[in-house]
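hey team, just a heads up i'm posting the complex here instead of the shared drive bc the drive is being weird again. everything in one block, sequence lines first with there labels, then the predicted structure for the whole assembly after. its two chains so it's a bit long, scroll down
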Amino acid sequence: MRPVLAITAVELRRFLRDRSNIFFVFIFPLVLVLVIGSQFGGGGSPGRVVLVGEGSDLRTAVVTALEDDGVAVALAAADDALEQVARGRADVVVQLERADADAFAAGGDVTLDVVASSQAGAPATVERVRTAVQAVTVQQGQLAALTAAGADEAAAQSALGRVAGALDEPRLEVVDVDEVAQELSGLGQFDVGAASQVLLFVFLISLAGSTTLIQARRYGVVGRTLTAPVSTTQLLAGQALGRFVIALFQGAYIMAATALLFGVDWGNLWLSAVVLAAFAAAAAGAAMLLGSLLDNENAAVGAGIGLGLVLAALGGGMLPLELFPDSLRGVSLATPHAWAYEAFAEIQRHDGTLADVAPQLAVLLAMAVALLGIGSWALRRSLSRAM
Amino acid sequence: MEQLWTMTVSDLRQRVRDRSVIIFAVVVPLALMVVFNLVFGGTEELELEPVTVAAAVPDDDELGRVVVAALGEVGAPEVTVQDVDAAEVRGLAEAGTVQLGIVVPEGFSEALARGEGPVLQLVEGDDAGIETDILVAVVQGVLDQLAAGTAAAAAAGELGLTHEQVATVARQAATAGPAVTLAEGEASDEQLSGGATLVAGQAGLFLLFTVGFGVLSLVAEREQGTLARLRSMPMRPGLVVAAKALVGFVLGVVATTVLLVAGSLMFGVNFGAPLAVGVLVVCAVTAATSLMLVVARLARTAEQANIVQSILAIALGTAAGAFFPLTATGVVGQLLDLNPVAAFIRGLGITSGGGGLGDIGVPVAYMLGFAVVVVALSRLLPDRGREL
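-- predicted structure starts here --
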């Protein structure tokens, strides 16, 4: 067993000493969790509106009404605002010209120019703007109706002020029974992103790291190891364990760091760790296979990064599986990522127990055994190949 | 000139024989485009689909009817209203038979008139999308108007107006004021469609790897000792760097063109006028090549060069929205604009929207400006590999 552990220790030491890993293993995954969580997590804002125009009562009233509705409002010059909309950085531009503000102050009709972007959410934001500008004129409408009925304006104003506090306004209660919305509701801002990044990086780093296996063969490290009292089986076991420890290390690091820094809830930690271990074993097998099939380090890096990203995209490492079209959901089951995603989802969102994630764990373990088996066979064969 | 040509051709031949260039420059980005398109392609639909609303309104509830009638008048999306029992609404929404359910409680009108804050329930169904978001905003608008009428009527009561006058005030409160209407104009569209963004993003990101294969072989030659031999030849030392830069440039232009053409054919995307797109490609490749000159000076070994190059490529690509769109405004937005990959994607947005050579001035200026600044920087930086 000692030679196996020695080879494993060497692999882990090489991994930790590689300075590129400072960025790709330790910094980049957390940056992605942060960026994705802040961009997409927590439901986001129900719209982004840019207002154009000098300060006026009308502008203040529109901004207040929009912000009360939860819409993000920014002020900008006309050209700037139109560019933001054209580039999809804002949903709607509302132009409040001087004449509009004056007409509003004088109690006249106002027509506001709005420009919506071609983004999917823009029509809903236009509707929110419509509701907000309607609300702006409500008080003037109330006053006008009361004075038209013969009331004195000052008395009407104070009467409106008195009743405002005494009446409860009708409320809207919106329930979303959409399966996807329910599945993803109640999750922390960074929870989905963190689980996805674990899947993405554990596999990506493992596959890209398969170059060390090629280097070990090229520089004769493998040959020299075998001249020591170490059997081929021990060498293969050491390499497999080395890759497994690296994958496990990467996953555990992201889980621990996201839990501490972003408060990500990983559910039952022991169970999550078991899922991670099964997934890491599959990643180790895939890395061994790649490092044995290819003899060129640069090609292995390219293929590793390409495969790592493609498999992650297909397996829920970039977009939640719940949002996949049905046909693609079937394809995703060919990746270990999808099984691990479902297991993490069960543990994180539904307090899943070992029995609940047993099917996913079984598939992951089967994949890991198959990949490690084929990887070892390919590595054994590659040892006799000239490079 | 002949020396430059010989070195460039020789290097290009070596790079093409090395499978890794083809894997990195063409195979991986194309594979990513296909998969990303499969995965993300279905999530972006701009057409508003017709919506069916299940409405449960108590028989004699006048204001409840007003709310539901307002939904029927919405033009976009097209709305069909089905009258159902309150108990059925949730089931229909869950089954996806209707996209939105609305439940008006018993005594809604009276509770509203008395200012008791009745609660109207909306149920967004399975498959609900942007259309139901619009309808929710419409219902909110109608409720606001009804509330305004109630408040005005209450004020009228306080002021001692007659019963008829109170009723008139309640009706008119929402409409008596100045009308603020919206006139919808059209934005000049500088956005790429979902598929085109994927193609442009991946082409821009992998461009940074592709040009690296040319320029960074300088570092590899230094390590192998062949650079010293090249320098011993009777030619200006700058020619070696120029040949490497030229190799990166040629590889970059070829790979990016292949990716854009293949991407357009595969996903039915049109990037617009070929000449303008060509200018954008050349500017983007120039900017990317200039960046590699900095990397070649900073890195002592080929391994270090690969690391720095990968970090820069991934960071700039991600910041430019190659993987997912980033929405940023203000200073952050302006900083993101300085990124040559972002400028490239933005330029393609302009050309695909029908813009020609005259319209892509800003992104071209960003990319060329980036190249000038970075080349100047590469002259100032110490050459860390020289002592090897």
